[in-house]
């Protein structure tokens, strides 16, 4: 399978790497060349999703068997201040990609921000009511791609991993840096998530693409945690002190425009045979897997405590 991955950031790169590990090829496409080296086995092509000709040219040049859509912007606070540009990239961009793909299988990685956040957790059958400009733009993209009949929308909860070189490091990376260096880390006590390891998102994406699934599917991790609780688990798992953590309310912080409950569960995943053996790991196991990269001394200290 030759997969065209629209988006060359941390998650796009991991999905591309997963597709090559499964024996296929992947071409990462974005407006700018990735800041870091593309994963082994992948290529890069320039693409601006806002331009229908750019989309058509990219699909024609790559000649993919399937398309994964995981491009930005995904900085929710930035999107709130730039709602029109966000809609142009995610909403109009989806329409341009749908026209260019012309019936090819498409997987859109979407977001928990399509929900209001008033419920404890959200399944596929729950009513959407976007919490912010990012959620509205992603929902517009979802609807456009689902109309093709060949698309799968994979809504994911807060994705994490070790990403020190990324344009906007994820919360795990931010926490580890602050804990390690003794710098303050704002950790909201009233913002709930079901964090999911980036490798689990990539594994599900690869399996679902190969199975040809369509419709809507949710992927969240098994833990429902406030950011403050999660940050404390990271500190404990890496053997770091939690002194830098500041228990705060999300109001007045960069998390203010996010839904209170950014939590997902799936009503559908258990019936899909291609997901057997791909159960998302909890945050403690995720921390253990990332320890070597995030903090080279951590594995030895973890072993000593066992």
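^ Assign residues to that structure.
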């Amino acid at each position: 399978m030759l997969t065209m991955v629209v988006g060359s950031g941390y998650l796009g790169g991991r999905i591309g790497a997963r597709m090559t590990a499964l024996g296929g090829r992947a071409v990462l496409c974005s407006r700018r060349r990735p800041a870091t080296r593309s994963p082994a086995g992948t290529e890069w092509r320039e693409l601006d999703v806002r331009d229908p000709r750019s989309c058509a040219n990219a699909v024609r040049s790559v000649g993919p068997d399937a398309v994964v859509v995981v491009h930005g912007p995904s900085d929710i606070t930035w999107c709130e201040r730039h709602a029109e540009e966000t809609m142009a990239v995610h909403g109009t961009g989806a329409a341009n990609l749908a026209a260019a793909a012309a019936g090819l299988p498409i997987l859109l990685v979407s977001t928990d921000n399509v929900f209001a956040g008033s419920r404890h957790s959200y399944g596929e059958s729950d009513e959407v009511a976007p919490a912010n400009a990012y959620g509205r733009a992603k929902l517009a993209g979802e609807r456009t791609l689902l109309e093709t009949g060949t698309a799968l929308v994979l809504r994911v909860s807060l994705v994490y991993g070790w990403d020190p070189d990324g344009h906007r490091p994820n919360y795990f990376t931010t926490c580890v840096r602050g804990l390690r260096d003794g710098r303050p880390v704002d950790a909201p006590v009233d913002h709930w998530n079901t964090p999911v390891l980036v490798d689990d998102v990539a594994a599900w994406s690869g399996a679902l693409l190969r199975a040809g699934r369509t419709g809507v599917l949710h992927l969240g991790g098994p833990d429902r945690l406030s950011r403050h609780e999660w940050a404390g688990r990271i500190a404990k798992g890496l053997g770091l002190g939690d002194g830098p953590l500041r228990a705060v309310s999300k109001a007045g912080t960069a998390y203010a425009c996010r839904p209170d409950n950014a939590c997902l569960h799936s009503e559908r995943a258990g019936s899909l045979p291609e997901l057997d053996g791909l159960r998302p790991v909890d945050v403690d196991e995720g921390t253990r897997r990332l320890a070597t990269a995030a903090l080279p001394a951590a594995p030895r200290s973890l072993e000593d405590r066992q």
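The two ends are 43 Å apart (CA to CA).
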